[in-house]
Amino acid sequence: MIDLRRLRHDPAAARAALGRRLDPEALKQLDRVLDLDTRRRESVGQVERLQAERNAQTAEVARRKRAALAADDLLAELKDSGDRVRALEADLRDIESLLDAHLAALPNILLESVPDGDATANRVVRTWGEPQAFAFTPKPHWDLGAALGLFDLARGTKLTGSGFPLFTGQGARLVRGLANFMLDLHTKEHGYLEVQPPYLVNEASARGTGQLPKLQEDMYCVERDELYLIPTSEVPLTNMYRDEILDVAMLPIAVTAYTPCFRREAGSHGKDTRGLIRVHQFDKVEVVRLVRPEDSAREHGVITAQAETVLQRLGIPYRVLALAAGDTGFASACTFDLEAWGAGVGTWLEVSSASNFTDFQARRANIRYRPAPGAKPEFVHTLNASGVAFPRTIIALLENGQQADGSVVLPAALVPYVGTDRLVPRP
After folding, report:
1. How far apart are CA 337 and CA 199, in angstroms?
2. Is 353 labeled as catalytic in the residue annotation?
3. How many whole angstroms separate alpha carbon 331 and alpha carbon 384?
4. Which of the following is catalytic: 205, 332, 352, 353?
5. How confident is the model at residue 267 (pLDDT cuts 50, 70, 90)?
6. What pLDDT does residue 61 have?
7. Fewest CB within 10 angstroms: 87, 102, 173, 299, which?
């Protein structure tokens, strides 16, 4: 959530900043917020003036009573003004409720370093590794997975529906191995605290990280219990500290989790539906950092590099993109995407988004820290990255590691976790 004082102080700058997102609705929301803020302050002024008049009248009633003078006229005025105060306070509550709702619908202010433009203006920051040149035509992962017996997409569809993959045999072991490999890397080398969070969160948690109300259509809701299946463990990990004031010595806080993630992918029907490219349930290791505001730019580089280390250890060629303003997510102030090369599908595949949210999520979730003993609490900055998501990482492992005989060579880093250096076709 954006600091309302920032919008009020310089609405022209806010309009220019939000306009970079190329989202007309954001500018409409800004107009509504500014109008409601004006109305709220006017209403507060009316209530305060009327309350001051009532206080003076109450004092005069007391004076007249002490002097044995009649005060019926003032008592009648007090009754009338009391009714007006209650009506104004009811209107004020309605205005404040609307203001909060529209403020919650405003996306974050982007950092100046974010490139202007839509997705076509995303900038390649760096690359790592070289896509392999094959002496044969590389197969897509859906053919490799079927031949190797790694997953059964048809039975997954039978069990639940399209986009809910079923991993089997060596495929299930590969998923488990990836989870342990990534968790060991982030906890033993990168200093993260491993967490096993709930897979369902309440509305306050979903609002705290910005999934609600903007991304409600993408979330699976258990309406009877008013709970939401997590779209990423960023939601419970960040909200662990909701409504808390942290000691500065606790920062940076670094937590990681391996969880399934659930996304409806609303608006994506018909796109990338083959294989594992776009699914509704997938596994992911997430890394989340809570930091001091002055450290967040540097920490963004740290968390991005930590996600890159996963791909480097797996030997997967990748590139890092600085997302343009029109392609940056609702809550993010700046995002770097990591895209892995898929030789069989012949394209780059997003496997991680590393984002700096500045104080946007912290304001929504009310996560603060005290810079020094007795100092006024300030909002932390939050960051997160996929470290990394499994489906497209598995695509890259299979398609880049495939051999002419149909087997797939696994990277050395995974061998201790999977128990083999090669996946071979079923007899």
Report:
1. 25
2. yes
3. 11
4. 353
5. low
6. 77
7. 87
